[in-house]
Structure formats: C-alpha cells, structure tokens
Amino acid sequence: MISIGSYITDPHTRMDTFLKLKKNCALLHAAGFEVGVWLWTFMIQGDQEYTHITSPYGQSASVEVCPSDEAFCSFAASYLADIAACDPDLILFDDDFRYGHLDCGLGCTCQNHLTYMSELLQEKLTLEGLPEKLFSGKQNRYRSAWLKANGYYFRLFAEKMRIAVDSVNPSIRMGLCACMTTWDFDGVSAAELSRILAGGTKPFLRLIGAPYWAPERNWGNRLQDVIELERMERSWCGEGIEIVSEGDSYPRPRFVCPASYVEGFDMALRASGNMDGILKYVFDYYASPSYESGYVHNHIQNMPIYQQIETCFANKITCGIRVYEHMTKFENMDIPQHLTGSCSVQDMFFSPSARLLAACSIPSVYEGLGIGGIAFGENVKYLEDGALDNGLILDVTAAQILNTQGIDTGILGTHDIRFADEEYYVHENECVFTGNAPFHDISVNQNAKILSYFVSKGCQYPASYLYKNTVGQRFLVYSFDGYTTKDHVTKQYARARQITENISWLSRKILPAVLSGNPDLYMLTKKNDHELAVWIGNFFADAAYNTTIVLDKVYHKIKFINCVGELSNNTVVLHRIDPFNSVGFVVSS
C-alpha cells in the first residue's frame, strides 16, 4: 500500500507526485508485490472552491468536500485516472468515505442535499428545525429523505470513480475503508459501496475498528470490543468481497499503541477465521522504516502461532450466544430522550450487548440462533425467525418493545429512572459496586424469578430476572438500558456467572466453554463433530493464573497453543496467561 495522502491541487506538485508513484509501482511490481495506492476520499487541505459537507446544524467540515459537488467529482475522476495510469493493482479510499464523526457533526445538508431532499418530499426545505426532525422522535419522512440523499451521492461518487478508472484500465481493483457511519447513518453500507467501486473486479473492503482505539478507550472500546466490532461488521457483508481487518497501530511508534495490542487483535480474528487478511500497520508514517521495528519483530516472532491458529481453528464453526445487532436501525429508530437533537446518535453503532458478553468472557456468534441470544434496544425489532423460542437476554428497552408487540416478557410496568450504588445478587449473597448507574424502576410478573436487585438510597429494585411466559418463551431481563448503563454494571464476575449459570435454562443448550474471574479475558470458541477449539486473549495488565475453563463435555486429548496446562475430564487449567498475551487449545474426544 502506497499512501499518497489527500488530493493535491497544485498542478506541478501533483505531476511530481504521480511521477514518483509510477516509479514506485514499477519498482514494487518488479520485486513481486501487488501494489495498492491509498488516498483520502473527500479531503482537500485548504480548499475554498468546492461545497463542503455541512451538518444539519449548518456547520461545514473543514477539509471534507461533499460528493454532491459535480465540479469536485470531475476533479476527483481526473485524479483517479492519473492514479490508474501509474498501473497499480488496487486503489483504496481511506476512511473518510463517510458523513459521520467529522468536525461538523453527522451527515450532510448542504444546498445540494437540501435540494435533493426537497424534490423527494415535494416541500421546500431549510435547515430551520431540521435537526429536530432528523434526531428526535419516531421514524419520519424527513429522516428517510435525508438518508436517501446521503446514500444517493455516495453511490453516485463511487460510480463516477469506477468509470474514471475503467477509462484507463478496467482490471484495476478499487475498494474502500469502512467507517462507523457507512453501515447505517450514511444511507448506504460499506459493503454495497465496495461492490459499486469494484466494477468488473472482485470487491475489496477494509473494515473499521483498530487496536489503537483500546489504549485510549476510544468510544469506550477495549481491545475485545474492537475485535467483536469487526466480527459484527463481517456478518453484515455477505459473500464475494475480499475483506481485511483494520490492524492500525496509529499513530506509532509503540509509545502510543503497543505491538501486543495489534498481535492480540490479529490472532483473535485469525481464530475467528472469516477474514481474508489484515491491513497491518507496522511502519512509522514519518520516520525511516528501521526507526520503529517492534511491530515487525513481533509479527515475525508470532508467525508460528499464526500457523497453529489457522490449522487448529480451520474447518470449525464458531459457537456461542447470538448477538442480535441489526445493521440499519436509524431510519426506524425511536430516538432515546437523552440523544434527542444530537449527532451523538451515531455512537449507537457500538454494540452494548457484544461488549457485555466480551466483558464476561462469554463466546458470541453473529449468525444463526446460537446458544440463546442477546438483543438490546431497537435490535429486537429485527429478530430472526426462531429467536424468541431460543431464549433471549434483554435490556429494559428491548423488553418494553417486545411488550408493545404483544410478547409477554414479564414486565408489568416501568416507573422512574433511578441510580444504583450497588447490585445485590441473591444466589451468591454478594453485593457489587455499580457506580451510580441509571436503571428503570420496574414492576414484574409474580412468576418472574428475581436474580439480583439494584440498591438505591437503601431500597431494593429488580435488576435482573428470569421469566417464562405462557407460550414457553424464556427471557433473562435487565432493568438497565444497554446503551446508557455504566461499565460497573456490565463488567462484573457476578454478571458473567449469572449468565453462564442460567444460559442452559434459557436456551436449553450448553455453552462450549465457561470461565470467570479475570477482567478483560476474552474467549472465542469453535467446534466441529470431533473437536473444540478455544482462543483466549488476556487483554489486561495482570497475568491470569490457573485459569479454569469448564467444557461442555468430557474430552480425552488436548493440544496447547502458546501455553501450558492440563486437561481433566471436562476441565482445562491454564497455568499462566501473561498480560496482553493470547493462547489457545484444541480438545478432542
């Protein structure tokens, strides 16, 4: 991948850049490499000429140009044709192919967008009152028109760029780096855009979610959350696309993002097994290639482990609790009160149900019914056939939505929002700190079995319960909202044990492997008829000693990967998992 940065408007500098690019493409081809050219999609530094992306609040992006600007599209098309003339194998748009997470806010309502929306709605639109229409209440025609406009101009831009490249060489592949908002809020998915850009070639897509997010807790993500995010996106893509993960260690050197984060990310997704590769960022952008060699050295050191992972985890099916996270929710969403009128609605891209399972060291899947399912908030509007009869873990919002659909989840009513200092687990006789976390005061059916109570100002309120309705559907329901609760509520050993101890009642199935007692100990499991493969990442600063994993049945043989331990009947004990190290094993009967 040769990165050429943002568009260059000065003709002499542009000519010099493309002469160098052509030379380097030839050099790398001669050395046996496939060559990709990588550039920003809509970024022009210091531009005042073109229409910039403009949020519904009237703020313009400082450097991102709107693809609705025909003059810009003509300029970009000529630029792409010049790149194609340098003879690369692939042209990749970087992760500004988006309307969201920009300095101006979310989405575009420039004059071109407003005109397009006005034609759709047969109504003259201005910015006045538009944010409230888009970011509050229930589904409405303004929100639908806005999403359609966003998607229309992205599709049109992709089509024009493909035509430009085809005019030089139709065999050159084109792809893009997915962004958070190009799965829902931009009106078109990254997967669809990759197919448009591909033309007659195979689509190429780099997913979004990078190891460098974890050290800084970007958007609240820990390393296991980023891994789950990429697995979730992959489930939305379908087949026929070459898909790579985002192994970004930005900004480099390792003072900011340790190589162990990149390696843990890489290994987990290799074990998951449904990526075609990883775009692994191992060189410093600014320094010489030899300045920061740590990423390369770690990669080389771990190559034997990669091989073991790919051998032992191949030909197996991922198993665990099904995470229901629907790709496109925004158009039909009932905007939560705390996000009304706010661009922060784009943060609902992150899956709180996936984060909860990952925090509890519980394996997950994103396809099929799984060993029971988990659905928070709006996601219950999009359940697959059979989900309700397979057992579901719900937050209070999801339970309320199902109630309005005539499905009895055990909630009789919701009252005030309160704040909990602790949670009391009945079975364990244990109190856990919850950090003044919000929850709903709910009343529940007398047949519900209360598992825990939130304690607020000395009073107890149902925090979680099991319930089986009259048609046999089974639920584990929480009185918190998954999108607004705090980490202290989801990251608990007691929460992990609560789920694993009740999942067999809920789903009438058994988890393939269960562990508890260490923070940020991430687990992924895969099975076939003869073997169970388990991958564990210790994404925490403490070593994990004598980690005990209880399996779904008795096994007689075991192969360890990067660790030492013992197998006894249905239990594996791993002696030590060092901080930010990843290990695995395969058992057979």
Count every beta strand, where a strand is a DSSP E run of 2 or more residues: 27
Distance linking N and C termini: 45 Å
Helical fraction equals 25-40%
Question: Which strand order do you get reading across the main beta sheet?
Answer: 12-11-13-14-19-18-17-15-16
* Strand portion: 25-35%
> Radius of gyration from the CA trace?
25 Å
Description:
The structure is a single chain. The chain is α/β, with parallel strands linked by helices. 29% of the residues lie in helices and 26% in strands. It contains 15 helices and 27 strands. The strands form 5 sheets. Strands 12-11-13-14-19-18-17-15-16 form a 9-stranded mixed beta sheet, sandwiched between helices. Strands 1-2-5-6-7-8-9 form a 7-stranded parallel beta sheet, with helices on one face. Helix 5 runs parallel beside helix 6. The two termini are 45 Å apart. The model has no long low-confidence stretch (mean pLDDT 97).
Descriptive labels:
589 residues, alpha/beta, nine-stranded mixed sheet, seven-stranded parallel sheet, 27 strands, 26% strand, globular
SSE blueprint and pairings:
Layout: E1 2-5, H1 11-30, E2 36-39, E3 52-54, E4 60-65, H2 70-84, E5 90-93, H3 111-121, H4 130-134, H5 141-166, E6 173-177, H6 190-198, E7 204-206, H7 213-216, H8 223-235, E8 242-247, H9 259-272, E9 277-280, H10 294-301, H11 303-312, E10 317-319, E11 321-323, H12 352-359, E12 364-365, E13 373-375, E14 392-394, H13 396-404, E15 411-425, E16 430-444, E17 449-456, E18 459-468, E19 474-478, H14 487-490, H15 493-507, E20 513-514, E21 521-527, E22 531-538, E23 544-551, E24 557-561, E25 565-568, E26 571-577, E27 581-588
Parallel strand pairs: 1-2, 2-5, 5-6, 6-7, 7-8, 8-9, 11-12, 11-13, 13-14, 14-19
Antiparallel strand pairs: 3-4, 10-21, 15-16, 15-17, 17-18, 18-19, 20-23, 21-22, 22-27, 23-26, 24-27, 25-26
